[in-house]
Amino acid sequence: MKPALLTPETMSIKGIDLLKKIQDDFIGLDTKYKLADGTISPRIYLDSTASTLMMGAAHRASKKFLNHYSNTHSLLHFSARISTKTYAWIHNRILDFVHADKDEYTSFFMGSGVTAGMNRIAKTLNRLRPERDIVLVSMMEHHSNDLPHRKHGGKVIHIPLEKNHQMAGKINTEILEQYLEKFSDRINYVSITGLSNVTGIINSINKIAQIVHKYNVYLVVDAAQMAAHVPIQMSGFSNKDKEIDVLLFSGHKTYAPGSPGVVIARKSFLNAIEPEEVGGGMVDKVYPDNYFVTKKFPDREEAGTPNILGAITLGSAIHILDTIGMNNILEEDKNLIQYTMNKLTEFKEVHIYGDTDIQNCPRAGTISFNILGMDHGLVAAILNYYFNIAVRNECFCAHPYVQEMLSATHKEQLENCESINSNLSWKMEPWMGMVRISYGIYNNIRDVDILVSSINKLITNKNYYKSQYKIDENGDYKHINFQFSSDDFFSLTETIDQEIKIL
């Protein structure tokens, strides 16, 4: 009997089935803590934008690989052959994941996130076209997609955002094109986020690529958040202008903590100049007075012994995400975001930041908000100490973006702050920030319902909760009675000592 053909419909159904199976297979979903009211409950993890939980299947695959562990760059003994072949497979699997043509693109690993790779790319493109001294980045960028360009890329100009009823939305492509026209002979590249780490707003990266390529400008995409939520296509278009020149993402945000950051770039960019980092593995010959860099990718871009185990975990997670289907993941994600937005907008005290019209301005994964009359740190502390809901607060390494959006709720405070000191002290002002909830594929409607119920209790009993906290010298909210001790739940020394005892 011939196997049944996999149509898009059956693939979608199979992907959804796999998604439902994999959702509960993450390490840490059943972790419990004792709360301020004395109860013990499971943690609800809503901090995936900072770092996702470990995918169980990927972790188990990496543990099995350890039976064969060896360094790469050799085929002369069995374990080395397994490591080398598997490591090469992961690079190719990543190219498939982002739909990058293997003849034109390579993938390589750097650091523990996007930051190291973005610094490398800024240096590389600056050396490639030193006569072009301007880089465009958007106002919504994480510091890792802003500061490297300021230091290594040239003069940075920030692209403003669209506004819907004064709510910041996607990158304003009209103004982007105005900048491109005005500085066409000076702009080297544009570097933008695919998905904001503050609001979850999604930018149309292929549409933006089509615009910038008209002006002989390159496009770099920070996909640190995008990779785990949105399908990515770097190449394969009938219109080549839609292609992405460079894309970066992070293993620790794609369900593989401890994994390296990933760079996918055009080989032509990298071939034109010597790699920024030199060392073992990236040369063909070394003489006392000279050396010759290999032409082989990705070897020439990965000096030294790689993070093989982290790459194994990342490759496993990426393979599973691709098998589920990123379209399936995005659809589930958008439904969860819409459900959350509908629930939160029922509270008149809750302000959601960024354009909330998700038909006009799509979102995935992330929502940032404040409860009017309460500092972000206090809200985050209450959600953690009383409801075991893990969220993040402050400005999420995106100070200019957060400051711009805070003008919707804290205009008077911002004006007072600026009149006193033009250099805003983010740590000293307890109101200066937001609360961020962010989802992974392990989150569901039940998590949202618990969050919404907790926010309702928080608002209803606002004065009581406020009375239970004080601000310490670092500007952090501390409970006046309850003390949490990390050692009660995990101590590395004790864990190691226990492992030694059972040997």
User: What is the count of DSSP helices, taking H or I runs of 4+ residues?
Assistant: 16
Q: Determine the structural class based on helices, strands and strand pairing.
A: alpha/beta
Q: Low-confidence stretches at least 5 residues in length (pLDDT < 50)?
A: 1-6
Rg over C-alpha atoms, rounded to the nearest angstrom: 24 Å
**Distance between the ends:** 52 Å
The fold-level CATH name of the largest domain is Aspartate Aminotransferase, domain 2
Instruction: Characterize the quaternary organization of these chains.
Output: single chain
Please list the strands of the largest sheet in the order they lie side by side: 6-14-13-12-11-7-8
The major β-sheet equals:
7 strands, mixed
* Portion in strands: 15-25%
CATH superfamily (homologous) name of the largest domain? Type I PLP-dependent aspartate aminotransferase-like (Major domain)
